[in-house]
Each structure stands twice: as C-alpha cells, then as structure tokens.
C-alpha cells in the first residue's frame, strides 16, 4: 500500500469514527442538556468534516492534532454516567488524562473528572427562560440565530418575541428572509417558515412572535404569554438607566443592552467581570465588541506581567452607522463613503476598560480607524509591562490561557502564518491572538487581536444572558485558575 493510500485509508477511518460520534453528542444534548465541547468549541450539530476540523485545530494550540480515536473513548464513558446539565470538554479530558500518572482507566478518570455533574451533585434541568429581542438589526439577528441554536434541548433560553417598528407590505416576510440568509454569515442552519396571520416566525420549531411597536410603553408582554423575560435591546437607542428602564414592562424581568452603557449601568465582559452582577440587578450592558476583544487579553497580561500603561488602536470593519456614499452625518468623518475610505473615528473601548477592570490602574488610551471590510476587526494592543519578558514566554502563556484558563471561551490563539481577517468570520471567541504578529521587547509587548465584531460579540452577549438567567452550566474538567 502506498503512503497516499495509507493517508486516504486513515482519513476514511476517522470519518467513520466522527460519524459515530454525532448521534451520541446529539442524544446527550437533547436528553440531558449536556453540551460536548472540544477545546471550548461545541461539537453539537456539527458535520463529520467539522468534527474532524475541530480536532485538527488542536494542532495549532497544543502542537499536535488531536485524533477522534483519542476522544471517542471519553465520549463513550460519558454515556455510562448519570449526567446533569453541563458542558464537557473532550479535549481537556484527553489532555488531563494524558498527564495523569495514576493508571486509571478512561472510564474511571472520566467519572472522577466530571463528578460535579453526576448523581447527587448534578444540576436539575431548569424550565426555559423567556427572551425578547428589542430590535432586529445585525446583532439582533445573530443573537436570534444563537438563541434558536441553543434551544435544542428545550431548556435554557427560549426566544419568544422580537419587537420592531411597523414596516410596509410583506414586512414579516422580509425580516424572516434576513434571518434566513446573511451575506457575511451565510445560511441559517435549519428551517424558517412565516405565519403572517399570527405575526409569527417559526424557526426550527421555535414560534417567535413579531411585535410591532414604536415605543416600549406600548407593549404588555404578558398578553403574549411572556413572563420573567430577559429583554435584549440591540437598538442602542437608550443607553442609560432611565432610558433602559422603559423596557421594564409587564412580563420583563431584566434588560441587557448590546452597546456600552452610560452612567451607573454595569458594563459586563463575560469571563472577566460577569460574576460581579448583583442578583437583583435589572439593567446591564454587554459593553462594545472592541471592549470585549481587548479586556480578556488585557486581564490575562495584567495577571501575569502587570500592566503599567497601554494604547489600543482598532482597525474596525465599517458598520451601518456609516454612509455607503458621501452624505450628511452628525458625526465627524462618518459621513464619508464607508466602502471607499479608511475613516478615522473615536472608540470608547479604552475608557470602558475601567468599568470592566476597576483594579487595573494603568492608563489605557485608544483610537480607531474604520476600513472597507464588512466584518472582522483587529485591535492592536500596545502595553508597557510591569516586568521584562520574551516573545516566546508571552506566546506560551497566551497559548495556555486559550486552552485551559477561565478565559478560554474569550481568548483564542492562531499560529497560521497567512491568516487574514475573513478567516475569523464566525469565530465564537471575543478575540484571537495572532501569534505570528506578536512583538515583545523587554517590558514592551504588542498584541494583535482579531475579532468578529458581529458574531464573536453576539456570543459574548449570549453568555451574559445565560449567566443572569441561571442557565450557564458549569464546564468539566474545570479550567485551571
């Protein structure tokens, strides 16, 4: 047999193993609310090729590809356990098992590693929490996709309604069409039908009422059977407590803003300060996409090296706030054509760091340039550190942070030598460290952080909503602190 035939046979064998994993992963998710991950990447509803690609990704971080032959025994071991709602990372199980010297079997090690999610320790499955989207723009539609995707088990979060201003003829059909297909993020994964008689969009079996209103005061959500809901305002029209309080109508319990909050509205970056949310807090903000991109790596660097000062320069994709062609705009420069120019603008991300990281006393400045790409941005984070270090040490540290730390869902890591912005469309991380571009000289470090300013940010929003709703299930094995 030739080497070529050997490689092809190996591929076919791995395809067969990955195919056998799909029904096991699906059953765990539907029946027990268990989400199977691989190095923080969900394997739920993934194709054979996607499962193999996610396994191969481990090569970039851990230095070698993780084979499905290594992870399948752990997946089989999970099926023998009395698991409760949880997230279980096969990549972490395999890595920690390899480092364990006690001679335990895979079944014994797995049972021990996920003990917090089994038997008397397991969390009971909770009733689904109602969610309402106020606005249905770029972020709103991506958040809708994520909510529908995560409703697979029938528990957790359930998108019940979308509130929009009244439109013209075929308004509902047009809004459903924008949810069904997206020029950047591709086709919706599933089926969508429209019930115009009842103003309802049905997506993967989820009945979503479309409510037409020009102001929050016009709506009584209990009239739609909605109770104790979390409302996600993605319009940005109101950003202070007084304005956002308008949403606290019958049926609404909490309000989450997908823009930086003003005044005393808490600005939350999941993974960094979400655990500071008070149980009785009804109004909070998920800050900005750029704040979510820079704060997790900034915290990681501050924890390990100390940060004396910093500057962030964001090269940001253009947004709907800009004009397609030169026209009047109330803000400086933003009236100039977005697809034809690099446009200098301000960013509030640097000042927002103080809200998310109050213990970081280092001054952080910032500026931004909008560029003619429709999605994915890069933040260039220049830091003066508290001690000298080397490029190799920083990269080893950030690689480990992306794999095993509590920030592993926020920080990703790539060593791809030819990575460009479009490679990160659809990334679920808040930011991705570009190893090849990283520069370190003594106590000076410059990190290049890619981020999908639409989808990655939407994932952070969902994580905050899961946390405040009580359906953010623990991950096993527990990440290193």
**Sheet with most strands:** 8 strands, mixed
What is the overall shape?
globular
CATH class annotation of the largest domain: Alpha Beta
CATH architecture title of the largest domain:
2-Layer Sandwich
Could you state the CATH homologous superfamily of the largest domain? Dihydrodipicolinate Reductase, domain 2
Mean pLDDT across residues: 92
CATH fold-level name of the largest domain? Dihydrodipicolinate Reductase, domain 2
Please describe what this structure looks like.
- The protein is α/β, with parallel strands linked by helices and 481 residues long.
- It folds into 3 domains: 3-121, no CATH class; 129-259, 3-Layer(aba) Sandwich (Rossmann fold), CATH 3.40.50.720; 289-454, Dihydrodipicolinate Reductase, domain 2.
- Helices cover 32% and strands 24% of the residues.
- The chain contains 12 helices and 21 strands.
- The strands form 4 sheets. It has an 8-stranded mixed beta sheet. The protein has a 7-stranded mixed beta sheet with strand order 15-16-14-17-20-19-18.
- Helix 1 (3-32) crosses helix 2.
- The longest helix has 30 residues, at 3-32.
- The radius of gyration is 23 Å and the shape is globular.
SSE diagram, text form:
Elements: H1 3-32, E1 34-38, E2 41-42, H2 48-62, H3 68-79, E3 86-89, H4 90-99, H5 106-113, E4 129-134, H6 138-149, E5 157-164, H7 171-180, E6 181-182, E7 186-187, E8 192-195, E9 200-203, E10 206-212, E11 229-233, H8 241-244, E12 252-257, E13 283-285, H9 289-305, E14 307-317, E15 343-345, H10 349-356, E16 364-371, E17 377-389, H11 391-404, E18 411-414, E19 431-434, E20 439-451, H12 455-469, E21 475-476
Parallel strand pairs: 1-3, 3-21, 4-5, 4-11, 5-10, 11-12, 12-13, 14-16, 18-19
Antiparallel strand pairs: 1-2, 6-7, 8-9, 9-10, 14-17, 15-16, 17-20, 19-20
Helix pairs in contact: 1-2, 1-3, 3-4, 3-5, 6-12, 9-10
């Amino acid at each position: 047999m030739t080497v070529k035939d050997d490689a092809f046979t190996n591929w076919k064998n791995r395809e067969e193993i990955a195919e056998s994993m799909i029904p096991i992963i699906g059953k765990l998710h539907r029946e027990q609310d268990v989400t199977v991950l691989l190095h923080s990447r969900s394997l739920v509803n993934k194709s054979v090729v996607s499962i193999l690609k996610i396994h191969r990704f481990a090569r970039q971080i851990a230095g070698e590809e993780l084979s499905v032959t290594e992870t399948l025994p752990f997946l089989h071991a999970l099926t023998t356990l009395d698991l409760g709602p949880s997230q279980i990372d096969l990549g972490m199980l395999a890595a920690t098992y390899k480092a364990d010297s006690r001679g335990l079997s895979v079944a014994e090690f797995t049972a021990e590693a996920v003990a917090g999610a089994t038997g008397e320790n397991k969390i009971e499955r909770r009733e689904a929490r109602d969610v309402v989207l106020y606005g249905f723009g770029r972020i709103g539609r991506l958040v809708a996709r994520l909510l529908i995707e995560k409703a697979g088990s029938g528990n957790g979060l359930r998108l019940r309604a979308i509130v929009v201003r009244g439109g013209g003829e075929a308004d509902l059909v047009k809004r459903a069409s924008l949810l069904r297909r997206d020029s950047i993020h591709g086709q919706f994964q599933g089926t969508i039908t429209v019930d115009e008689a009842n103003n309802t969009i049905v997506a993967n079996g989820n009945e979503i009422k479309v409510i037409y209103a020009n102001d929050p005061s016009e709506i009584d959500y209990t009239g739609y059977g909605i109770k104790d809901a979390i409302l996600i305002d993605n319009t940005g029209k109101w950003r202070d407590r007084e304005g956002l309080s308008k949403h606290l109508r019958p049926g609404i319990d909490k309000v989450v803003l997908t823009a930086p909050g003003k005044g005393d509205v808490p600005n939350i970056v999941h993974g960094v300060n979400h655990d500071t949310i008070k149980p009785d807090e009804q109004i909070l903000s998920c800050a900005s996409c750029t704040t979510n991109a820079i704060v997790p790596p900034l915290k990681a660097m501050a924890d390990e090296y100390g940060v004396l000062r910093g500057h962030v320069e964001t090269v940001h994709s253009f947004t709907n706030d800009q004009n397609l062609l030169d026209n009047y705009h109330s803000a400086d420069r933003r009236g100039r054509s977005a697809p034809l120019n690099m446009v200098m603008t301000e960013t509030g991300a640097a000042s927002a760091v103080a809200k998310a990281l109050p213990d970081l006393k280092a001054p952080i400045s910032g500026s931004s340039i909008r560029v003619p790409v429709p999605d994915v941005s890069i933040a260039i984070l220049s830091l003066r550190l508290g001690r000298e270090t080397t490029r190799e040490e920083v990269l080893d540290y950030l690689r480990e942070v992306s794999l095993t730390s509590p920030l592993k869902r926020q920080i990703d890591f790539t060593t791809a030598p030819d990575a460009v912005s479009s490679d990160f469309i659809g990334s679920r991380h808040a930011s991705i460290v570009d190893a090849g571009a990283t520069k370190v000289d003594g106590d000076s470090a410059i990190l290049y952080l890619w981020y999908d300013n639409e989808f990655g940010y939407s994932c952070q929003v969902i994580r905050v909503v899961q946390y405040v709703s009580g359906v953010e299930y623990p991950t096993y094995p527990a990440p290193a602190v």
